[in-house]
Amino acid sequence: MGANDLQKNASGNAPKYKRMGFIKTIKTYKWLYLMLVFPLAQYVLFRYAPLTGLQVAFKEFSVFKGISKSPWATPIFKYFQEVFANPQFWNAVKNTVKLNILDLIFGFPMPIILAIMLWEMRSVKVKKVYQTLMYLPHFLSWVIIGSLVVKIFGTNGPVNTFLSSIGRNPVNFLMDSGNWTVMYVVTGIWQSAGWGTIIYLAAISGVNTELYEAAEVDGCGRLRRIWYVTLPCIMPTIVIMLILQLGQMVGIGFERPYVMMNNMVKNSADVISTFVYDRGILNRQYPFATAVDIFGSVVNMCFVIGANFITRRMGEGGLF
Amino acid sequence: MSNAASAKPRTAKGRRYIGSEIVFNIILTIFVLLCVLPVIHVIAKSISGRAPVVAGKVYLLPKELDFNAYVSVFNDPTMIRSMWFSIQWTVIYTALAMVSTILLAYPLSRHYLPGRKVLMVVVLIPMYFTGGTIANFLWVKQMGLIDSPWSLVLPILTSTYNTIILRNFFESVPASLEESAKLDGCNDLQILIRIILPLSTASLATIALFYAVARWNNYADVRYYINTSSKFTLQMKLYQVVFASSSSDVSMVEGGKNAVLAETIQCAAVVFSTVPILIVYPFLQKYFVQGVMIGAVKE
User: Fold this and answer.
1) Which of A45, A140, A142 has the CB atom closest to B277's CB atom?
2) Whether A119 and A268 share a structural domain
3) Whole-prediction pTM value?
4) Which of A167, A308, B21, B219 is most buried (CB neighbours < 10 A)?
């Protein structure tokens, strides 16, 4: 390629490559295309190729025959009918939605509240220390977090010994389904509320300080200033985060419910991901579990696209 | 008048808002304590004697200092093996993932590259539609990777999210550097290695840490794909120690059937698995915050 091409690119004109022939294009950019070989091979092999496995949901899958040689199920939606007729499936869907709604109600506002309070702190040093300590739980794996929960709220844990030392009855925090749900939500807040402040702190730091001064001149106290200046100013960020979270309503990662679950609360702790694991990987009901997976994926995609549509309509530019 | 007003605010403000200041500080302090105390409690239990732990007397300070639990953990070959296995595969994964991410992000960051838009779509689709647990599992199985450590590496090699972060960064490197290197006769690979990468060390460190922590903490895929205990990562091993300590496949300590001994040992195992994260945490914290901010900037 000559210096001419470079200049065209450099001046930021509309791409001129369309005038180049295919061979010339490849030659000109051969290094860039060569770089792509390794990552794209990974995408094709491990992102796109596994999609072929989705047909298992429509087949009488046999491990010996393999995916392509297994016969089609009759009727073709046989396993979807089985899934939709399965009460445990609906129980998992119900739990997934329930836990997500609870996370939304109790978990979502926490980082906003914490971020505002952090922002109002005067001592920069203390603030730094607090932030460092608040972010810590985000870096612990769910297995470690689950272990901490068991050690602290288990029957021999300090909470229960404390309760009995003041003459109260021990509480079964993890074996009773109502208490378990509370623990699940609280643990989620514990893990992510501190980390979640980052994005809101960034938003608050972008607020024009003149607005604060104006509020001060108008005689606003701190709480009123937060309510009338800070909150409205970070509202766009709050809305985006809210919609992102709404987009995940049907999905719950596998690890958090799995490590916290035990046999006593299985009924109220079983979510779609753990249900799929149990049916598919443990019990090898591949077509059934794949059908559940497809259901989850499709509903999830609808939510994500819907969420994106809403942000676009609100003038936030959409997320993708 | 204006002089007096500008001199005053700090102190006046301070006195006026002292009430809310105190309330905010109390709430934040409680939250911060709640974040840290569970970890301290487990550490205290892990270095306490058996008796006070049975009696439930250990809250935040160790009683009857006793390091035998750690002796047991370090004497347990399976624990050390899992730690080593985790470190080894976290390093392998992070290295390969970085290579793959760089090789993908750089061409994506070149606006003039024909086919870039198509490529972007190819990369983005799997972010929104995935095969799900079972399809991935069957594929890994078909590839013969079940029970191979590579099943923990290959399927998650390139994170689209990290790729986009890195691409955004590469885009911000001034184009003039690339142009002058081209005039000097460098090809794109040389430009990437000699010019772009040395300028991006902070971003690269951020992303490497994203990958390393993700791999280190990941538990689900080990659960799905790995069956042999010699290939258990530390998270998997810890899960067995803490949650399945009654089952027979746990070989913590011979003669360790005593439930209370197991309690201190379990706590020691938790601390043992947390320490690597605590060691890198000071570095992590700085870089991760940067990373979140880079990622928050819309493409």
Assistant:
1) A140
2) yes
3) 0.86
4) B219
